[in-house]
Amino acid sequence: MANQVQLDAKAIARSRIAATERRAASTPSVFRRLLRSKSAIIGLAIILTITLVAIFAEQIAPYDPIKQSFIRQLRPPSASFPLGTDEFGRDILSRIIHGARWALLAGILADSIALVLGVSLGLIGGYYGGKIDAFVVWLTDVMLAFPYLLLAMIVVAIFGPGIRNAMIAVGIVYMPQYARLVRGTVLSLKEKEFVEAARAIGASSFRIMFRHILPNCVAPIIVMATLAVGWAIVQTAGLSFLGLGARHPMPEWGAMLAGGRNYMLSAWWIATFPGLAIVITVIGFNLLGDGLRDVLDPYLRGR
Amino acid sequence: MGRYVIRRVLQMIPVLIGVSIFVFVGMHIVPGDVATLLLGDKATPESLARLQHELGLDQPVYVQYYRFIVKALHGDFGVSLRTRQPAWREVWWALPMTIELSICAIIVAVLVGIPVGVLAALRQYSFFDSLSMVAVLVGVSMPIFWTGLILLMLFGGRLHWLPIGGILDEGIVFRPITGIHLLDTLLVGDTQVFNSALRHLILPSIALGSIPMATIARMTRSAMLEVLRQDYVRTARSKGLSERLVIIRHALRNSLIPVVTVIGLQLGLLLSGAVLTETVFALPGLGRLAITSLLARDYAVVQAVVIISALMIVVINLAVDILYAYLDPRIHYT
């Protein structure tokens, strides 16, 4: 028996070394293959540009995004205001530049909430099975039975309207997607030899879940996480558009769109450009996500 | 098959119980107690306590939940704070609009999405293929509310081709029968009102249908590519069938199986999109009702909308699963 355990331990050590080597070899190769994908490069370039815009918003923006001016209201796009001004005389370009911060924050924060909650739930359910798993399945089924936007609206109503709570709501609503994905992967992995081996040398459940199983689910999680950033940006903007997220005078793209709605027929630029900013950002994340999927999941390549 | 259907129907029960628990708990922890909201400024501690007692709000939570369930099963979701109408009636009035809009959106999505997907697959790597896949990417990346606004500004505001929101032209008085205007006007044979209703529905349907359209096109393309590689397609070709027959009878039919699932899943997602579309186009549907009720803290109506729409989604998912089992003879469900 002791001999067996020792053997297993050796096997694990060997497999871990192999895994480390494989990882060392595969990480750059994944990146290299990613750079060969045209769509991934365009996606990366878009995301990088928007990140830089968000970081250096203060330096890039030509005007103050919040300060109102009643002598330059509703100006159409021109040399001094490339994207025009809104009903309060604020420069739309400057507001869009500052809005990039809120958009990225919304995407990343909401996605992180969904990821942490969903991955943990999926891991726990898939690993322990039985009643715990039944509960996880039930919870995700129930959450997916709601129209996601209605669910997000209720969460916002509970916590109170505001951009931060809108982000939290979007994260909670997306959580079941991660839980399902991870649970499915865990179910297929937990009977594998390396998990059995880890259990044989007495690794704790926590360790097995997070050190042995989770690293093997990383590829699909990365793909989902990338695509979900775009989704979260749109949904948070949607909640702001409905009046449940960002409030006046915050330069948030969804709220800017909602403001522009009233001037739709006279000043088209107010609602057009913030929406365009959303579309470009989301395209960036979708392109990168698709590229990552092609590289990480050969089965789906070319779909 | 029959046993599978029964099992799937039974599986709905715990999910629906879960939905009711979520809604009940949500409506309890939402700020603003019903009694306070009902009484408004006139509330005194005594009148508040009396109303809370009348509404059963001083009872233990499980008793309240039990009463909530019994009432909900009878369709009683309480009274709207805004209109003093039963909440179910508000939902009942708003539902046809959303159903009509969703059906039109799915029709638009299918009519455009499937042909585009098929053509793109038949001409893989052609210019049309690349162009349509770029369109798909843009389509799934556009927020519905922005798509709606752009369509409104362009076709309503600038070109004056189509109306800018609402359900019928001003001045038209029409007594709905089912509430689904296209159907009602056909039933009474009023082409003028039918045209008006149709013109009002075009832009919202395109806006709401844009994401399903893109998803369906992408799915059709990939399913078609998969099927075209199969042996039976080669066999069909080699026995001398015309290309047209091969595509329509052999390839398309089989590639539509996964597409049907996608359509079903999109149908469930449309309810979320409807909230935004109805807001942009000022359509009095379920989504619009949900957001106005929520902003007015009219929680009885919110509760009714949420439960009814969750019920609809669960039933749609069930129907899709059954349809899938029926369409794909390779799958055996026990």
Order of helices and strands of chain A: HHHHHHHHHHH
Question: Into which percent range does the helicity of residues of chain B fall?
Answer: over 70%
Decide which structural class fits the backbone of chain B.
mainly alpha
Shape of chain B: globular
Percent of residues in β-strands of chain B? under 5%
Structure summary:
The complex is a heterodimer of chains A (303) and B (334). With 303 residues, chain A is mainly alpha-helical. Chain A has eleven helices and no strands.
Can you walk me through this structure?
The complex is a heterodimer of chains A (303) and B (334). Chain A is 76% helix and 0% strand. In chain A, 48% of the residues are buried. Chain A is elongated. Chain A starts with a helix and ends in a 7-residue tail after the last helix. Chain A contains 11 helices and no strands. With 303 residues, chain A is an all-alpha fold. The model of chain B has no long low-confidence stretch (mean pLDDT 88). The termini of chain B are close together. By secondary structure, chain B is mostly helical. In chain B, α8 crosses α9 and α9 (191-228) crosses α11. The interface between A and B is large, with 43 and 51 residues.
Question: Could you outline the blueprint of secondary structure elements for this entry?
Answer:
The complex is a heterodimer of chains A (303) and B (334).
Chain A: H1 2-36, H2 38-55, H3 57-60, H4 92-128, H5 130-145, H6 148-159, H7 163-189, H8 193-200, H9 205-241, H10 253-261, H11 269-296
Helix pairs in contact in A: 1-8, 2-4, 2-11, 4-5, 4-7, 4-9, 4-11, 5-7, 6-7, 7-9, 8-9, 9-10, 9-11, 10-11
Chain B: H1 2-29, H2 34-39, H3 45-54, H4 61-73, H5 87-122, H6 127-141, H7 144-158, H8 181-188, H9 191-228, H10 231-238, H11 243-280, H12 286-295, H13 299-327
Helix pairs in contact in B: 1-13, 5-6, 5-9, 5-11, 5-13, 6-9, 7-9, 7-11, 8-9, 9-11, 10-11, 11-12, 11-13, 12-13
